[in-house]
Amino acid sequence: MKLSADKRQEAPGATLTDLVAQARRTVLISLSGRSGQLAAVRTMLSDLRARAQAGPGRITVRVLGSASALRELPAWAGAADLAELRVTGRPLAETLVVDVAEALLHAPGDSTGGLLVRDRAVVRVLTSLFMGAWEASLHWPDYLLLDAYLATDTARGVLARLYAGSTDAVAARELGLSLRTYRRHVARILESLEVSSRFSGGTRAAELQLFDTL
Protein backbone atom coordinates (compact mmCIF):
# COMPACT_ATOMS: atom_id res chain seq x y z
CA MET A 1 0.00 0.00 0.00
CA LYS A 2 1.46 3.36 -1.04
CA LEU A 3 0.79 6.40 1.13
CA SER A 4 0.42 9.79 -0.50
CA ALA A 5 2.37 12.69 0.96
CA ASP A 6 -0.67 14.19 2.68
CA LYS A 7 -1.48 10.92 4.43
CA ARG A 8 1.85 10.21 6.03
CA GLN A 9 4.24 11.93 8.36
CA GLU A 10 7.88 11.25 9.04
CA ALA A 11 8.24 10.69 12.75
CA PRO A 12 11.88 10.72 13.83
CA GLY A 13 10.80 11.46 17.39
CA ALA A 14 7.84 9.08 17.54
CA THR A 15 8.84 5.71 18.91
CA LEU A 16 6.89 2.56 19.59
CA THR A 17 7.03 3.13 23.33
CA ASP A 18 5.90 6.77 22.93
CA LEU A 19 2.78 5.76 21.03
CA VAL A 20 1.90 2.85 23.30
CA ALA A 21 2.18 5.12 26.34
CA GLN A 22 -0.74 7.10 24.88
CA ALA A 23 -2.88 4.02 24.16
CA ARG A 24 -6.28 3.77 25.80
CA ARG A 25 -7.97 0.78 24.16
CA THR A 26 -5.94 -1.36 21.75
CA VAL A 27 -2.35 -1.99 20.72
CA LEU A 28 -1.64 -4.19 17.68
CA ILE A 29 1.95 -5.16 16.88
CA SER A 30 3.36 -7.27 14.06
CA LEU A 31 6.95 -8.36 14.60
CA SER A 32 9.45 -8.37 11.77
CA GLY A 33 12.13 -10.02 13.89
CA ARG A 34 14.39 -6.95 13.72
CA SER A 35 16.46 -6.74 16.90
CA GLY A 36 15.70 -3.05 17.40
CA GLN A 37 11.96 -3.63 17.26
CA LEU A 38 12.16 -6.64 19.59
CA ALA A 39 14.07 -4.57 22.15
CA ALA A 40 11.44 -1.81 21.93
CA VAL A 41 8.61 -4.32 22.30
CA ARG A 42 10.24 -5.82 25.39
CA THR A 43 10.44 -2.34 26.92
CA MET A 44 6.85 -1.62 25.92
CA LEU A 45 5.58 -4.82 27.53
CA SER A 46 7.44 -4.00 30.75
CA ASP A 47 5.83 -0.55 30.77
CA LEU A 48 2.37 -2.02 30.17
CA ARG A 49 2.94 -4.55 32.92
CA ALA A 50 3.77 -1.78 35.39
CA ARG A 51 0.82 0.25 34.14
CA ALA A 52 -1.57 -2.68 34.65
CA GLN A 53 -0.30 -3.24 38.18
CA ALA A 54 -0.77 0.44 39.00
CA GLY A 55 -4.51 0.47 38.44
CA PRO A 56 -7.55 -0.36 36.28
CA GLY A 57 -7.99 0.40 32.61
CA ARG A 58 -6.71 -2.72 30.89
CA ILE A 59 -5.62 -2.32 27.26
CA THR A 60 -6.08 -5.06 24.66
CA VAL A 61 -2.60 -5.91 23.38
CA ARG A 62 -2.10 -8.29 20.46
CA VAL A 63 1.36 -9.32 19.28
CA LEU A 64 1.81 -11.31 16.07
CA GLY A 65 5.10 -12.75 14.86
CA SER A 66 7.15 -15.75 13.85
CA ALA A 67 8.05 -18.38 16.42
CA SER A 68 11.67 -17.19 16.48
CA ALA A 69 10.57 -13.59 17.11
CA LEU A 70 8.11 -14.51 19.87
CA ARG A 71 10.78 -16.57 21.62
CA GLU A 72 12.76 -13.34 22.05
CA LEU A 73 10.03 -11.88 24.29
CA PRO A 74 9.99 -12.48 28.06
CA ALA A 75 8.11 -15.58 29.21
CA TRP A 76 5.55 -13.48 31.08
CA ALA A 77 4.66 -11.49 27.93
CA GLY A 78 1.79 -13.81 27.05
CA ALA A 79 0.12 -13.58 30.45
CA ALA A 80 -3.66 -13.44 30.06
CA ASP A 81 -3.90 -10.09 31.83
CA LEU A 82 -1.21 -8.44 29.71
CA ALA A 83 -1.07 -9.49 26.06
CA GLU A 84 -2.20 -12.15 23.62
CA LEU A 85 0.52 -13.63 21.43
CA ARG A 86 -0.04 -15.49 18.18
CA VAL A 87 2.40 -17.12 15.80
CA THR A 88 2.45 -17.08 12.02
CA GLY A 89 4.83 -18.35 9.39
CA ARG A 90 3.95 -15.57 6.97
CA PRO A 91 6.41 -12.69 6.47
CA LEU A 92 5.16 -9.59 8.27
CA ALA A 93 5.61 -5.89 7.74
CA GLU A 94 6.74 -4.18 10.93
CA THR A 95 3.62 -2.37 12.12
CA LEU A 96 2.20 -0.83 15.28
CA VAL A 97 -1.43 0.32 15.42
CA VAL A 98 -2.76 2.17 18.47
CA ASP A 99 -6.48 2.67 19.16
CA VAL A 100 -7.22 2.40 15.40
CA ALA A 101 -6.08 6.03 15.33
CA GLU A 102 -2.33 6.01 14.68
CA ALA A 103 0.11 3.59 13.11
CA LEU A 104 3.88 3.38 13.02
CA LEU A 105 5.46 1.59 10.05
CA HIS A 106 9.09 0.60 9.66
CA ALA A 107 10.46 -0.45 6.29
CA PRO A 108 13.41 -2.88 6.03
CA GLY A 109 16.68 -0.98 6.13
CA ASP A 110 15.03 2.22 7.39
CA SER A 111 17.35 3.90 9.90
CA THR A 112 14.82 6.56 10.93
CA GLY A 113 12.19 6.26 13.64
CA GLY A 114 9.69 5.00 11.10
CA LEU A 115 6.65 6.40 9.37
CA LEU A 116 3.83 7.76 11.53
CA VAL A 117 0.39 7.48 9.93
CA ARG A 118 -2.55 9.45 11.33
CA ASP A 119 -4.97 9.30 8.42
CA ARG A 120 -7.92 7.34 9.86
CA ALA A 121 -8.84 5.63 6.57
CA VAL A 122 -5.29 4.34 6.11
CA VAL A 123 -5.06 3.24 9.74
CA ARG A 124 -8.33 1.31 9.37
CA VAL A 125 -6.88 -0.52 6.35
CA LEU A 126 -3.73 -1.38 8.33
CA THR A 127 -5.92 -2.62 11.18
CA SER A 128 -7.91 -4.83 8.80
CA LEU A 129 -4.72 -6.28 7.33
CA PHE A 130 -3.42 -7.05 10.80
CA MET A 131 -6.66 -8.69 11.90
CA GLY A 132 -6.75 -10.81 8.74
CA ALA A 133 -3.31 -12.20 9.56
CA TRP A 134 -4.30 -12.50 13.22
CA GLU A 135 -7.35 -14.66 12.51
CA ALA A 136 -5.24 -17.00 10.35
CA SER A 137 -2.56 -17.41 13.03
CA LEU A 138 -2.14 -19.83 15.94
CA HIS A 139 -2.30 -19.09 19.66
CA TRP A 140 1.24 -19.05 21.04
CA PRO A 141 0.54 -21.43 23.97
CA ASP A 142 -0.95 -23.97 21.53
CA TYR A 143 2.09 -23.64 19.29
CA LEU A 144 4.45 -24.28 22.20
CA LEU A 145 2.52 -27.40 23.19
CA LEU A 146 2.55 -28.65 19.61
CA ASP A 147 6.24 -27.88 19.23
CA ALA A 148 7.02 -29.92 22.35
CA TYR A 149 4.78 -32.75 21.13
CA LEU A 150 6.57 -32.81 17.78
CA ALA A 151 9.85 -33.48 19.58
CA THR A 152 8.90 -37.18 19.50
CA ASP A 153 9.71 -39.33 16.47
CA THR A 154 6.16 -40.70 16.36
CA ALA A 155 4.51 -37.28 16.25
CA ARG A 156 6.91 -36.07 13.55
CA GLY A 157 6.19 -39.22 11.57
CA VAL A 158 2.44 -38.63 11.78
CA LEU A 159 2.83 -35.01 10.68
CA ALA A 160 5.07 -36.03 7.76
CA ARG A 161 2.48 -38.53 6.55
CA LEU A 162 -0.29 -35.98 6.87
CA TYR A 163 1.79 -33.70 4.68
CA ALA A 164 2.37 -36.52 2.18
CA GLY A 165 -1.34 -37.33 2.03
CA SER A 166 -0.87 -40.95 3.09
CA THR A 167 -3.95 -42.96 3.98
CA ASP A 168 -4.43 -43.77 7.65
CA ALA A 169 -3.93 -47.49 7.09
CA VAL A 170 -0.67 -47.05 5.17
CA ALA A 171 0.69 -44.42 7.56
CA ALA A 172 -0.16 -46.48 10.64
CA ARG A 173 1.54 -49.53 9.17
CA GLU A 174 4.68 -47.57 8.24
CA LEU A 175 4.92 -46.17 11.77
CA GLY A 176 4.16 -49.47 13.46
CA LEU A 177 1.03 -48.09 15.11
CA SER A 178 -2.49 -49.38 15.39
CA LEU A 179 -5.00 -47.53 13.25
CA ARG A 180 -6.72 -46.23 16.38
CA THR A 181 -3.47 -44.91 17.87
CA TYR A 182 -2.48 -43.24 14.60
CA ARG A 183 -5.84 -41.49 14.36
CA ARG A 184 -5.51 -40.33 17.95
CA HIS A 185 -2.21 -38.67 17.05
CA VAL A 186 -3.83 -37.05 14.00
CA ALA A 187 -6.69 -35.71 16.11
CA ARG A 188 -4.25 -34.21 18.61
CA ILE A 189 -2.24 -32.48 15.90
CA LEU A 190 -5.35 -31.05 14.22
CA GLU A 191 -6.69 -29.83 17.56
CA SER A 192 -3.38 -28.13 18.34
CA LEU A 193 -3.41 -26.47 14.91
CA GLU A 194 -6.98 -25.28 15.57
CA VAL A 195 -8.35 -26.82 12.37
CA SER A 196 -10.95 -29.49 11.67
CA SER A 197 -9.75 -31.07 8.43
CA ARG A 198 -6.53 -32.79 7.42
CA PHE A 199 -6.13 -30.54 4.39
CA SER A 200 -6.41 -27.44 6.59
CA GLY A 201 -3.99 -29.04 9.01
CA GLY A 202 -1.40 -29.54 6.28
CA THR A 203 -1.87 -25.98 5.08
CA ARG A 204 -1.55 -24.53 8.59
CA ALA A 205 1.49 -26.66 9.40
CA ALA A 206 3.16 -25.50 6.18
CA GLU A 207 2.43 -21.85 7.01
CA LEU A 208 3.99 -22.33 10.44
CA GLN A 209 7.00 -24.01 8.81
CA LEU A 210 6.56 -27.08 11.00
CA PHE A 211 7.63 -29.33 8.15
CA ASP A 212 11.03 -27.66 8.13
CA THR A 213 11.87 -29.56 11.32
CA LEU A 214 10.97 -33.00 9.92
TrEMBL record:
One of its GO terms (biological process) is regulation of DNA-templated transcription. InterPro entries: Sig_transdc_resp-reg_C-effctor (IPR016032), WH-like_DNA-bd_sf (IPR036388). GO terms for molecular function: DNA binding. SUPFAM superfamilies: C-terminal effector domain of the bipartite response regulators. This is HTH luxR-type domain-containing protein. It comes from Streptomyces malaysiensis.
